[in-house]
């Protein structure tokens, strides 16, 4: 495999972004986070890309967290850019107009779990392990873990995971809603994630983008504001070519073919 630290491939309108430091369990050093951010931006700006799939190289890890070897010489001042870069990457993923699927093929610890949580949909292999182990290093999550984990799994479970630093297996992650589906092995995971990506790539792009925005807002905005945002973007979809195509296809009992306009 290439010696690039992050790989970028396009296949059938799907941008595959692969963290490529398998010998280091795909640990997220500064260069990896920077490259991941650049590739997410590249995928966002490429009109031929409809869906992004993020995974880790090899069968051991999605990403085993921030690169701990970068921590030794850091203090409260010098570590700030590291956390801010990680948070900015996660915020960018959430702000993207395209769905981002995390295919979690092994350890998703610390920053690995946090980046996965910023993705729209998480699929995992049975050997995946999840956790926020920072407490065992005398620190806390810094890429958004204390903020996104409780929103996804609930405050009580998030507190237990963050306070203990314990890892959980894929079936437990499925039970608590941290992942959407679990596959027997990495090969089945990648097939399942690609099948989902191909399915989403066929969906009307404008409606998908507006649905993502409205769902993201549901996390952040007060109910009334979010409901009124939903009405606005619901109405907006009625001016799209894809709405005409989708409704016409239904009424004429045929399969729609969306132009993403
Ligand atoms: N940062 C830097 N290097 C890491 C890393 C991380 N977060 N996670 C794994 N690695 C490196 C190890 O140092 C080792 O490198 P080496 O072979 O050059 O010594 C290699 O990846 C394999 O890890 P190893 O610990 O030998 O594998 P293991 O199967 O015994 O354990 C883990 C796997 C993931 C449980 C263990 O590596 C671990 O606990 N990693 C740190 C997780 C963490 O605390 N993440 C949050 C950071 S804020």
The share of residues in helices is 40-55%
Q: Give a short account of the largest sheet.
A: 6 strands, mixed
Could you say how many structural domains there are in total? Answer: 2
Low-confidence spans: pLDDT under 50, at least 5 residues? none
Q: Which topology of the largest domain does CATH recognise?
A: 2-enoyl-CoA Hydratase, Chain A, domain 1
Q: What's the tally of helices? A: 10
What small ligands are held by the chains?
Answer: coenzyme A
* Strand order in space, largest sheet: 1-2-3-5-7-10
- Give the amount of beta strand, in percent: 15-25%
Net shape: globular
Helix/strand order, N-terminal first: EEHEEHEEHEEHHEHEHHHH
Work out the radius of gyration: 19 Å
CATH superfamily descriptor of the largest domain? 2-enoyl-CoA Hydratase, Chain A, domain 1
Average the pLDDT over all residues and give the rounded result: 97
């Amino acid at each position: 495999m290439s010696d690039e630290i992050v790989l970028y491939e396009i296949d059938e309108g799907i941008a595959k972004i692969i963290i490529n430091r398998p010998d280091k369990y795909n640990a997220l050093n500064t260069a990896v986070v920077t490259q991941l951010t650049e590739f997410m931006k590249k995928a966002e700006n490429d009109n031929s890309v409809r869906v992004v799939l993020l995974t880790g190289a090899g069968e051991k890890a999605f990403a085993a967290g921030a690169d701990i070897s970068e921590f030794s010489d850091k203090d409260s001042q010098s570590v700030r850019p590291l956390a801010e870069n990680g948070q900015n990457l996660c915020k960018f993923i959430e702000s993207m107009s395209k769905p981002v699927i995390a295919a979690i093929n092994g350890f998703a610890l610390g920053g690995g779990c946090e980046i996965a949580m910023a993705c729209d949909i998480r699929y995992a292999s049975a050997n995946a392990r999840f956790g926020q182990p920072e407490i065992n290093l005398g620190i806390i999550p810094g890429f958004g873990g204390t903020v996104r984990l409780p929103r996804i799994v609930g405050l009580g479970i998030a507190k237990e995971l963050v306070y203990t630093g314990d890892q959980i297996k894929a079936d437990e992650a499925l039970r608590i809603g941290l992942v959407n589906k679990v596959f027997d092995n990495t090969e089945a995971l990648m097939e399942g994630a690609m099948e989902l990506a191909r399915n989403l790539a066929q969906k009307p792009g404008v409606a998908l983008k507006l649905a993502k925005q409205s769902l993201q807002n549901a996390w952040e905005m007060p109910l009334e504001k979010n409901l009124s945002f939903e009405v606005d973007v619901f109405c907006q979809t009625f001016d799209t070519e894809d709405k005409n195509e989708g409704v016409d296809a239904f009424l004429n009992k045929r399969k729609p073919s969306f132009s993403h306009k």
